[in-house]
Specification:
Number of helices of chain A: 6
Helix content of chain B: 40-55%
Distance between the termini of chain B: 68 Å
Order of helices and strands of chain A: HHEHEEHHH
Structural class of chain A: alpha+beta
Shape of chain B: elongated
Helix content of chain A: 40-55%
Number of strands of chain A: 3
Number of strands of chain B: 2
Order of helices and strands of chain B: HEE
Strand content of chain B: 5-15%
Structural class of chain B: alpha+beta
Largest interface: A-B, 70 and 36 residues
Radius of gyration of chain A: 18 Å
Distance between the termini of chain A: 54 Å
Largest sheet of chain A: 3 strands, mixed
Oligomer: heterodimer
Radius of gyration of chain B: 28 Å
Chain lengths: 158, 74
């Protein structure tokens, strides 16, 4: 490998390192400090997410936080940040500071969850969040999305 | 040791210890806890992204469907 090639390769690597994680939310354990949901709510949310994924076969995600100026674009960016799983993913994004709920379904998932079904979930979330019950809104919204997506035939007996 | 002294030692001291532990552990946490969210309040928690870890089958050939969904405000 010539010297120039190595330098350009290193520059590309550094650029990739810099852009790593850009535009995608942190996933995984983040501790209890500064958590908007308490332990009971987190446990219930966990159960609901896992059950939803098990029966629907879709990647079910929920986002709780600020969505910026263009909330739709931010929510779609979060969905596409899932990479290869984005087409079979569904995202429920709630921004209590902006009082906005966004449901985004990937290309394949949108064939399972129609826009009408997504609106039903949004209506539930806005009803709960309007009372200040963010955790209930998330849980009920995800349950409705999972119900609307339906159970895969081979998973009815799981 | 009469009955009163016995009660003081075997009930009073444990009671003081329990109340002390409660004051040390629960009260500071309660005072630091944020008030419950009410619509219209600012939201200054860090952003959270929750998802399951069930393995997902991505179909080999994707249909050319666009993103769907809905939005709403309260």
């Amino acid at each position: 490998m010539a010297r120039g090639e190595i330098e350009s390769y290193l520059a590309a690597l550094e650029d990739r390192q810099r852009r790593h994680g850009e535009g995608s939310a942190t996933v995984g354990p983040q501790g209890d400090v500064d958590s908007p949901l308490n332990r009971d709510e987190l446990e219930l949310l966990d159960d609901v997410l896992i059950e939803a994924e098990r029966v629907t076969g879709l990647r079910v995600t929920a986002y709780l936080g600020d969505l910026g100026d263009d909330t739709r674009a931010a929510a779609e960016g979060l969905l596409t940040s899932l990479g290869a799983e984005a087409p079979v993913a569904v995202l429920l994004a709630v921004s209590p500071g902006q009082r906005v709920v966004e449901v985004v379904t990937g290309g394949e998932a949108s064939r399972r969850i129609s826009e009408r079904a997504a609106r039903l979930a949004v209506m539930t979330v806005t009803a709960a969040c309007g009372l200040g019950e963010i955790a209930n809104g998330l849980v009920n919204g995800l349950r409705i999305l999972a119900d609307q997506a339906g159970t895969l035939p081979d998973r009815t007996t799981w | 040791m009469n009955f009163f002294e016995g009660a003081l030692v075997f009930l009073g001291i444990p009671l003081i210890v329990v109340i002390g532990a409660y004051l040390i552990s629960v009260v500071p946490a309660r005072s630091k806890a944020r008030p419950a969210y009410r619509p219209g309040d600012p939201w200054d928690f860090s952003a959270r992204f929750y998802t399951g870890d069930t393995s997902v089958d991505v179909p080999q050939y994707l249909t050319d469907s666009s993103l769907g969904g809905a939005r709403g405000t309260w």
